[in-house]
Amino acid sequence: MSTRFRSALMAGAAAVLGLALTACGGSDAGSGQQAGGQAGAPARTLTVSAAASLTSVYQQLGTEFQNANPGTTVTFNFGGSDSLAQQVVQGAPADVLATASSRTMQTAVQAGKIQGEPVVYATNSLQIAVAPNNPKQITDLAAMARPGVISVVCAPAVPCGAAAEAAEKAAGVTLTPASEEQDVKGVLNRVQTGNADAGLVYVTDVRSAQGKVQGVDFPQASAQGAVQSYPIGVVTGSQNADLAQNWVNFVRGPEGTAALQQAGFVTK
Amino acid sequence: MTAVPRLLWAPAALGWLLVAIPVAGLVVRVDWPNFLGLVTTPSALAALRLSLETGLATMVLCLVLGGPLAVVLARSSLPGLPFIRSVVLLPLVLPPVVGGLTLLFLFGRTGPVGGWLDREFGVTIPFSTPAVVLAQTFVAMPFLVVSLEGALRTAGERYEAVAATLGASPITTLWRVTVPVVLPGLMSGSVLAFARALGEFGATITFAGSLEGTTRTLPLYIYLESESDLDGAVAMSLVLVVVAILVIVVSRTRDLR
């Protein structure tokens, strides 16, 4: 009896190995992406920790920045603003921190991890994402709360969910979402695959879906607490503080402004 | 008992520490004064309850579907058996997120099966508790099938053959001979499937979504909490570790008996 059970358990153990190999899907989305360096001038690597919503804009700017500064390699660490700020506080190597909310940036500032004052260089507002041609004719938040409309938002604990809550409050509407997603891309995905009729996402997310969803503006998107600020700062103790400051200036300069506006951000 | 070569001690110790130290680190990191408060918030309890309920439902579904599947794989002489087996084992090597996506494309509102259910019966599977069970079963069933098929093969067909010569019908043989003989394998397989379901994350969040009390199981809750309240996430992680240890203890106690 005991031997047989043991051999069954061995088979199980083999299965557990499989579990160990596969169970970690979905966690570490997009870390440490490199855009390739150049020979010649002294090689320097700038590490930028940036909010996931900045991925495409920053990758494009990274290439432009490398072309403008031969010998420089820009490495990105994209992720959730909370985790990025936490990482910087814990001493993770980063030269620049660019989060998607002032609150998360404040975490790093209070830990003395940001040189000087971080600057807010862009904002992003909410839009209702619906299927192309808006088949359910959703024109505002109240329409999103109609029975029979499957709506999806971010969880209140994450920035896009907090923004959604602020907008709901301003509109006097309480949504009953079918799901509260971990991040805004999750919401976009639900609408894009047709499993949800409407979702609260940012203008930049609608823009990035390239016509697969349609964005609906609504007045409460500009309500207090609903608009997302994008602060950027140079990390204290950075080995490349000058280069990091150049990056900040680059993002705020003409190239950065153009790329940000193209993606749907409002620049300052 | 043969002597263990000295060469193996160091890597064996390292391997053990690799698992033990992070878990010990978790225990140290827990905010003990507030522990009870953190693990008994309504959201945490809802997640724990949902995890246990869907885990049990998954285990039952794995038994009902995976049990017969293991018998077919171990005892039948179907053509293409190796192919059938490799399909069953696919979720073991597939990232769970991929599993979730495949389920979404099949059972989602625009998928072939999901679309049909939506049109004909007004049933929407994503965002529902059954979707959680479906996702968990997808990833957990191979664990039961693998253990049970192994047990069936180890047990061999001698007793079944004897039962047949004594005039027992195949179904009587199955219930009176096969099942009792492989019961330990069946038990450990079920426990493993339950444990795997309890830890399921990727397929669930991709396919079922995340809503308190409906689809937000313990791993999803921990992941969400880690964004805002790390202490809460750590406390619930410890709860999950304790549940996992209980599961292992339960299965090992049978072994030692």
How would you describe the overall organization of this protein?
- The complex is a heterodimer of chains A (268) and B (257).
- Chain A has 268 residues and is an alpha/beta fold.
- Chain A is built from ten helices and twelve strands.
- In chain A, the strands form two sheets. Chain A has a seven-stranded mixed β-sheet with strand order 1-3-2-4-11-5-12, sandwiched between helices.
- In chain A, helix 3 packs parallel to helix 4 (102-110).
- Chain A is elongated.
- Chain B contains twelve helices and no strands.
- In chain B, helix 1 (9-29) packs across helix 12 (230-256) and helix 11 (218-228) runs antiparallel to helix 12 (230-256).
- By secondary structure, chain B is an all-alpha fold.
- The longest helix of chain B has 34 residues, at 42-75.
- Helix content of chain B is 79%, strand content 0%.
- Chain B has helices spanning 9-29, 35-39, 42-75, 81-93, 96-107, 112-121, 129-155, 158-165, 170-198, 202-207, 218-228, 230-256.
How are the SSEs ordered, and which strands pair?
The complex is a heterodimer of chains A (about 270) and B (about 260).
Chain A: H1 2-22, E1 33-34, E2 44-51, H2 55-68, E3 72-79, H3 81-89, E4 96-98, H4 102-110, E5 114-124, E6 126-130, H5 141-144, E7 151-154, H6 159-171, E8 179-181, H7 184-192, E9 198-202, H8 203-208, E10 214-216, E11 228-235, H9 241-252, H10 254-263, E12 266-267
Parallel strand pairs in A: 2-3, 2-4, 7-8, 7-9
Antiparallel strand pairs in A: 1-3, 4-11, 5-11, 5-12, 6-9, 6-10
Chain B: H1 9-29, H2 35-39, H3 42-75, H4 81-93, H5 96-107, H6 112-121, H7 129-155, H8 158-165, H9 170-198, H10 202-207, H11 218-228, H12 230-256
